[in-house]
Each structure stands twice: as C-alpha cells, then as structure tokens.
From TrEMBL:
Residue ranges constituting the CAP-Gly domain according to the UniProt record: 27-71
A Gene Ontology BP annotation from the UniProt entry: cytoskeleton organization
Name of the protein in question: Tubulin-specific chaperone E
Source species: Rostratula benghalensis
Function: Tubulin-folding protein; involved in the second step of the tubulin folding pathway and in the regulation of tubulin heterodimer dissociation. Required for correct organization of microtubule cytoskeleton and mitotic splindle, and maintenance of the neuronal microtubule network.
Gene: Tbce
Source lineage: Eukaryota, Metazoa, Chordata, Craniata, Vertebrata
Quaternary context: Supercomplex made of cofactors A to E. Cofactors A and D function by capturing and stabilizing tubulin in a quasi-native conformation. Cofactor E binds to the cofactor D-tubulin complex; interaction with cofactor C then causes the release of tubulin polypeptides that are committed to the native state. Cofactors B and E can form a heterodimer which binds to alpha-tubulin and enhances their ability to dissociate tubulin heterodimers. Interacts with TBCD.
Stated family: Belongs to the TBCE family.
Length: 531
C-alpha cells in the first residue's frame, strides 16, 4: 500500500527521524520507480546535494548540500493540534483502551460490564481539557489545526499556547488554530520555518486579545511583520530573534501598543535602521543583542539635549555588538527616559581594562541611568562617578576654553562632542576651580611633566627606572605604560608612592580613574610597583 502524502505536500514541513525539513519536490526521479519527496533539510549536514540529481535540477536549496530525496513512508507530516494536546497531557483514547478492564466487575465467575463507562471517561476527558488555561505542545509534531471548531469545543479556556518547534508550514495554520481560541493572550510559534502573507489581508479579530507573540527563528521579514501587524491591535511584546532581518521600515498605524521588541541575532544593515522604529509611542524595552550595529546616533538633538525618538524607552540592550566609539554611549544620554542599559561585549568596552573604571565612565555619561549591565546604580555610586569625571576631565575643559567665569566659559565644540554632559555636571556640582585641579592650567607639556622614579620593591632584580609622565595621566594609563614595560596586566598591578615630604609613609594609588596630580605627586617622588 502506498504511503499517504498530503495533497498540499509541497512546502509542508516534515520530520524524518529527528531531522526537520521542508518538502521542495514531489514526483518521480528517473530511472527509479515510484514517488519521491525532495527535501531541503534544516541541518545541511543531513543532505547530499542542492536538489540536482544526475544532471537534472528537481528543486533548489540554499546550501549546496542541503537537500536529498526520501520516500513518502519515511516522512512524518505531523498531527493536528488537539491530538498533540491529548498526547502531551495524557488525555488520549489509547490510555482509556489500556485501562478498559476498569469498565467491568467480577462477581464470582460472572463478569458484569458497566454500560456507559466509555462516555463517562470521554466526559471526564472533556472536563480536563476545558480546564487547561496554558498549553505547551513544543516538539509535538503539530502540523495542522484539525477539524474546524473542534478546538473551541474542547479547550474553551486556553489563554496561553506554546507551539514552538513543530511542523507548522504557514501563518495560515497558526491563524486556523488561534481562530478557535477566543481569549488567546500569549502565543509562541518560534522555530517553525513557515511562510507568511506577502500582501495585506483583511483584518480579522483572531488575535484581538493577543499581548505576547514570539516569532523567533521563523524566517519572517520585517515587511511581513508589518503586513501581519494590523491583526495584532493589542500586542505588547514581540520577539523576533534570529530571523535574518536586515532592513526595518517605519510602522505606520501598527504596533502602536508595543512595549517590548526583541530583534536580537538579526544582522541589521546599520544603526540608522533604529530610526525606523524610533517613534513607537509606548516602546519601553528594546533588545538588540548581536545585531551588528557599530554606532548609535540621534541627529535631531544637539549636545546636552533630549531626542524626540524613543519617547518611552526605559530599557536598552546593545550587548555583543560592534560599538567602538564613546560617542555612541554619549548619544544614549539623549534618550529622555532611559533607565537601564546592557552594553557589555562591545569594542568600546576594551578601551578601559578596569571594569570599575569603565562602569564609572558610563554612569557619568548617561545621567538618568539606574541599572547598568543588570547591576543597580546607587545614589552614592552615581555621585562618586560624576564627581570623578568632572575632576578628571577638568584640565581638558580648561584647555578647551572652559572657565569658572560664566562670561569666559566657552568650551570648544570638540570638547562638548567628547563630553556632552560636562556642562550639566558643572551646573550640578559647580564648575571645577583651578585650585581644585591642583593649579594645573593648560601650560606647555614640558611644564606639566613629572619626573618620577619607578621601583619594584618585591622584585629587586629589576632596576629602578626614571620616567617623565604628565601630571594629568590617570593611574589606569600609568598601568598601561607599565604593562608595555613588564608584560603584566594592569589588573594585577598594585601602585603606591613615596615622597620626601611623607617620610616613612606610603600612599596607595587605588583609583584607576584619578590622575597623578590628584594624589599630590611631585617631581622626584617614587612610584612603587607590586604584583
């Protein structure tokens, strides 16, 4: 007997053993007899060719060895939704058959059968299905909706469905299932490679109450998202990770209720793509992990001003990207409501080896931040970071035209571009006075140089060396210099200094953000290096 093949087999998803694939061809493959299925496998390692056999191309594959032919009897096209639910939750007919002896009772040698027990079992099964509010049929080989209205009759109270990693081939199938669930709030159809509408369709009320939708790894494009979005009028969270989305378009009159959007693991063309989604009025959380962006810019706002883009954004995740310039971190201060940031694993983070120094810089640069890389920022930590920042870059501010005298205070555009928050820090804490900055006005480099002796008290085999270092050089940069000399990471170095004015006393250089002048180091002093 020939194996059953669904009439709409082309494009259908299937399982063969544990391997998932999509039917790309149905027909004969001479010189062999019978029907074959040409399959493009999710895992190219399962395939043998690109759809070409003996010089004839039967179908196309994205991978040169992603396809092969199988007989229909090897293919599993899946089950309907309710069958999967019954199998998963132990509510199928087979289990009742196994327990069929429970319908009889033995009196001596006489067996009495209780008529109607099957119908009672069915009623109990129906009650249990109707009580289900949250259903997960992940990896249950769901391929189609089943008989019309059967889901609504059987599972009337479902609100949350996990349909991830099944055999769903099209958004039409998802709609057929959801149309029978009146109060659907959460839907996860991730890891189903499916087709989506390529043109606008009449808006229905199927997803009118849907708040959370996960479409990760479904191969959906942003254009298809926008075509489907009119049917999601109440959507608050949308997960679209790993879909090869590269270009975004502005959502006009759709997704206006969205509070969270996850575009992680899509290689966006550039950071300017974000401008396309910047006017979603309620968007509070934007997750952009590993999206390939190298810069962030809000061109509508100048230094120290707030952008009109992302008006409600509170949380932003840009970790594991290619952001290499501090200017992108500066730009984030333009977001009017930003409170939480995740930004680790970006090249800009490698510019400072000390993680505490790095954290202080980011906190000082983004005024409204309350949580950084999932760690809360206390008021004392913010104050310390801002005061240190104000002091460390005080000399640069003076050199660029900054002054305690408001009439003379005209810092250059270059300084403001590098330190856009500096004027607001001066307003908050007062402008740094020249005496506070150890009297080091912008003089010639020669006049700012300190002649210091560097000693290694625990490694006497190393001879002391004399170095001329700028007084404004931070401890972090001194450690960088020592790394080049010693090949020992700065995080392992402990620095202190001795002065002829402080006989017998050693002062620890314990803050990597502080410049040498902060510690009142003078010409002729000795820096002690330990590790």
């Amino acid at each position: 007997m020939a194996a059953w093949v669904p009439p709409d087999a082309l494009g259908r998803r299937l399982l063969c053993g544990r391997e998932y694939g999509t039917v790309r061809y149905l027909g004969s493959v001479p010189p062999t007899a019978g029907i074959w299925l040409g399959v493009e496998w999710d895992d190219p390692q399962r395939g043998k060719h690109d759809g070409t056999y003996e010089g004839t191309q039967y179908f196309k594959c994205r991978h040169p060895k992603g396809g092969s032919f199988i007989r229909p009897n090897k293919a599993n096209f899946g089950v309907d939704f309710l069958t999967a639910v019954r199998n998963r939750y132990g509510l199928n007919d087979e289990q009742d058959v196994q327990h069929g002896t429970e319908n009889t009772l033995v009196f001596g040698k006489k067996t009495v059968e209780f008529v109607g027990m099957d119908s009672i079992a069915e009623q109990q099964r129906q009650v249990r299905l109707n009580q289900l509010v949250e259903i997960s049929v992940r990896e249950c080989a769901v391929g189609h909706a089943g008989q019309k209205e059967e889901i609504s009759r059987t599972c009337a109270n479902i609100r949350h469905i996990n349909l991830s990693k099944n055999l769903i081939s099209s958004w039409e199938t998802v709609t057929a299932i959801a149309s029978q669930v009146q109060n659907l709030e959460t839907l996860n159809v991730s890891e189903n490679k499916m087709t989506f509408p390529s043109a606008s369709t009449p808006v229905s009320s199927v997803f009118s109450k849907l708040r959370i939708l996960a479409l990760n790894q479904t191969e959906i494009t942003w254009a298809e998202v926008l075509l489907c979005a009119p049917g999601w009028p109440a959507l608050e969270e949308l997960y679209l990770t790993s879909n090869n989305i590269t270009v975004l378009e502005r959502p006009d009159n759709v997704l206006q209720t969205l509070k969270l959007l996850d575009l992680s693991d899509n290689q966006l063309l550039d950071g300017n793509q974000l401008h396309q989604i910047a006017h979603l009025p309620r968007l509070e959380q934007l997750i952009l992990r590993n999206t390939g962006i190298s810069s962030i810019h809000f061109p509508d706002a100048g230094f120290g001003c707030k952008t009109k883009m992302f008006p409600s954004l509170k949380g932003l995740a840009v970790n594991s990207n290619k952001i290499s310039q501090w200017s992108s971190i500066n730009e984030l201060d333009k977001l009017p409501r930003l409170r939480s940031l995740q930004c680790h694993n970006n090249p800009v983070m490698d510019t400072e080896k000390n993680p505490e120094t790095l954290r202080q810089l980011i906190i000082a640069k983004i005024g409204g931040l309350e949580v950084l890389n999932k760690s809360e920022i206390s008021p004392d930590e913010r104050k310390g970071a801002e005061l240190d920042y104000r002091k460390i870059f005080g000399n640069d501010w003076l050199a660029a035209g900054g002054s305690c005298d408001p009439e003379k205070n005209k810092p250059s555009e270059e300084f403001l571009a590098a330190h856009p928050r500096y004027p607001s820090l001066c307003l908050k804490y007062g402008a740094p006075e020249e005496g506070e900055l150890k009297g080091l006005q912008p003089l010639t480099l020669k006049n700012q140089l300190l002649t210091l002796t560097i000693k290694y008290p625990e490694n006497p085999e190393r001879k002391p060396v004399e170095k001329k270092l700028p007084a404004s050089m931070t401890i972090q940069r001194v450690k960088g210099l020592l790394y080049r000399l010693l090949k020992i990471p700065g995080s392992e170095l402990k620095l202190s200094y001795e002065s002829s004015k402080l006989e017998g006393k050693e002062v620890e250089l314990d803050n990597d953000l502080k410049p040498l002048q902060f510690y009142s180091i003078e010409n002729g002093d000795c820096v002690l290096v330990r590790w």
